[in-house]
Amino acid sequence: MSDSDSSESNENERLGGLRLWVLLRVDRWVLTGIILAVVFAILVTTSRIGLTPLRLIVENQDGLEFFFSAFIGAIITGTSIVVTINQLVLSQELGAVGQQRDRMQAAMDFRQTVEATIDADASPPEPAAFLYELVEGIQKRATELEAEMEDERDEKLKGKIGAYVEDTTDNAESVKANLENAQFGTFEVIWNALQFNYSRKIYDARKIRADHTESLSEEANEKIDHVIETLRLFGPAREHFKTLYFQWELINLSRALLYISVPALTAMAVLIMYVDGNALPGTTLGIDNLVWLASLGFVIGISPFVVFIVYILRIATIAKRTLAMGPFILRESERDEDLG
Question: Which whole-number Å values give the CA distances from 320 to 160, 196, 237, 270, 308, in the listed order?
Fold first, then answer.
């Protein structure tokens, strides 16, 4: 790879990291505030570039009704969408006693399977602690595989196993460290679950076994099976907690929109009913007071829409990055040349 290609790759990686940080890590209310502040600054600044003065437009229209009346219908429609979202989320929680019992049994069966696989007496009930124990179990299985290869004479095979175990262990340690104080309901649990690339590790383990079938002993084959079996449990666990997180976020989104909608409707009503071309004469910082007021009103009017956008952006980004469950890798950044 040339220096220019390497520089371009590093730049793309930095931009991708910044984009993910904005889409996933930034607090939703902070991101909402930033977007609204940018819109407000653009509206106020635009009044200084020589276009028709806002006060003259408002005087000709006898008020701001033409400008803000559309927000009334939009906000009410958005509130109706909130009700629909809540119904969608709640419908998944409703069911007859038989369905609820089946859900309970399925959850218990999966938990017992995990406990048997990682040799745990009872797995923790908290999602972060459960994932911590599962990742630790994967790390333990990988270490057992490496120990099995200590007397291996095939140096190439031994080197591949060593590199695989080192990668798995380092990844596990990083994820475990971040999961220790993570609390479900925040994004940290899902973020750290996304950082453990179990699909890559399943592929690597199967590739090592396929490439060295004749060299691997029966015991080593068994250890690789244990590693793969434990890794396979991480996918359903992550998907289950991802589903719960989506429901949690949709409920938070619904509440946020309901909280914002009534103040936004009230602000729109005030602007429509009491503001005309004669309101707030004078300037502040060289800008007509009516521009400040109308810009603030517009920002308040679009605030429910912006909140909706920032929440859905994170949900959609997570969904896109976890479309394939199991040994499938969709993102180019996680592919190696030998996968082409």
Answer: 31, 16, 18, 42, 18
How far is it between the farthest Cα atoms of the chain?
Answer: 91
Q: What pLDDT, in 10s, does the model give residues 64-81?
A: 888 898 899 999 888 888
pTM of the predicted protein model: 0.80
Q: What's the pLDDT score for residue 336?
A: 44
Report CA torsion sign: 79, 82, 84, 90.
negative
Residue 144 near residue 164 (C-beta atoms within 8 A): no
Q: Residue 171 in 3-state DSSP?
A: helix
Q: Which residue has the higher pLDDT, 90 or 231?
A: 231
Rounded Cα distance, 150 and 162, in Å: 10
Phi, psi of 84 (to 5 degrees): -65, -45
What is the DSSP-derived secondary structure letter of residue 332? G
Percentage of residues in the chain with pLDDT exceeding 70? 89
Q: What is the pLDDT of residue 306?
A: 94
Quick one: which of 265, 260, 262 has its CA closest to 68?
265
Instruction: State how far the Cα of 99 lies from the Cα of 96, in Å rounded to an integer.
Output: 5
The amino acid that residue 289 corresponds to is N
CB atoms under 10 Å from CB of 202, counted, come to 20
Please name which of 139, 105, 136 lies closest in space to residue 123, comparing C-alpha atoms: 136
b/e per residue 21-30 (b: at least 16 CB within 10 A) = eebbeeebee
Question: Tokens for 273?
Answer: 């009913």
Residue 12, number of CB atoms within 10 A of its CB:
11
Q: What is the pLDDT of residues 219-276, one digit of tens each?
A: 888 889 999 999 999 989 998 888 888 888 888 888 888 889 999 999 999 999 998 8
